[in-house]
Amino acid sequence: MGYAQLVIGPAGSGKSTYCSSLYRHCEAVGRSIHIINLDPAAENFDYPVAFDIRELISLEDVMEELGLGPNGGLMYCMEHLEENLDDWLTEELENYLDDEYLVFDCPGQIELFSHVPVLRNFVDHLKSRNYNVCGVYLLDSQFMTDVTKFISGCMASLSAMVQLELPHVNILSKMDLVSNKKDIDDFLEPEPQFLLSELNQRMGPQFAKLNKALIELVDEYSMVSFIPLDLRKESSIKYVLAQIDTCIQFGEDADVKIKDFDPEDDD
Ligand SMILES: Nc1nc2c(ncn2[C@@H]2O[C@H](COP(=O)(O)OP(=O)(O)OP(=O)(O)O)[C@@H](O)[C@H]2O)c(=O)[nH]1
Ligand SMILES: [Mg+2]
């Protein structure tokens, strides 16, 4: 059984930075981890890239040869990835042992989980190769300043969750930039009633029904939960990683082994 994180979220939300911090953390604690770049537009990396979509296809070539713009070019590259899952991804995965921990640094284009099935197929491919996969959705805390932005962030995350059907962890990134932590507290694990009254205050009375339906939806999917991540703090990275590990049952086999040898159990 292998383990994988699919790191997703809007452009600039801090996915690649998270990946490199995670890499450094794991290195420091002596834990094996491999980061894979799935962003054909990425150029600089702060982490050693285990393997890279740019070895399969180059965005530059696509834009030049097909006359596509950067976003159309990216979609083309991702569709190309989808067509090559069986060859390319299978071959790359063969370089890793059965129980390895992989982290996929994805592009930020929202179309990737709202319009096209590439990431869904990617995930299904990983699952068929016996990987436990977790969706790690990063949202920039800078946008968590009022309820309308919060709801819109939730909706984007929800659309990824519905598309991918994966265990899902929401992370509020860039907490070091938040000067007033109290403002954010309102949105970390908010009461649906609080969100609804805030929304109703912000918007005209004609939206009351829609607001109620939105909050109920968000509540039903248990979406209303974000883990704050402050990359300056080792403890924060450790906590986030522990939450994700639980989601993909990483470390549980190790626990069983320890329990097997527990002398207390012998009588
Ligand atoms: N202060 C602060 N800045 C951050 C943090 N994480 C990322 N950034 C900055 O935010 C910008 C975007 O970060 P990236 O990690 O490239 O974001 P990304 O989600 O990978 O972006 P795309 O790949 O373009 O979608 C960069 O300028 C980072 O330096 C953080 O925790 N704190
Ligand atoms: Mg990136």
Automatic annotation (TrEMBL):
Gene Ontology terms for molecular function: GTP binding; GTPase activity
Signal peptide from the UniProt entry: none
Keyword field contains Hydrolase: yes
Keywords in alphabetical order: GTP-binding, Hydrolase, Nucleotide-binding
InterPro entries associated with the record: Gpn, Gpn3, P-loop_NTPase
Subunit: Binds to RNA polymerase II (RNAPII).
Job description of the protein: Small GTPase required for proper nuclear import of RNA polymerase II and III (RNAPII and RNAPIII). May act at an RNAP assembly step prior to nuclear import.
Similarity field: Belongs to the GPN-loop GTPase family.
UniProt protein name: GPN-loop GTPase 3
Lineage: Eukaryota, Viridiplantae, Streptophyta, Embryophyta, Tracheophyta
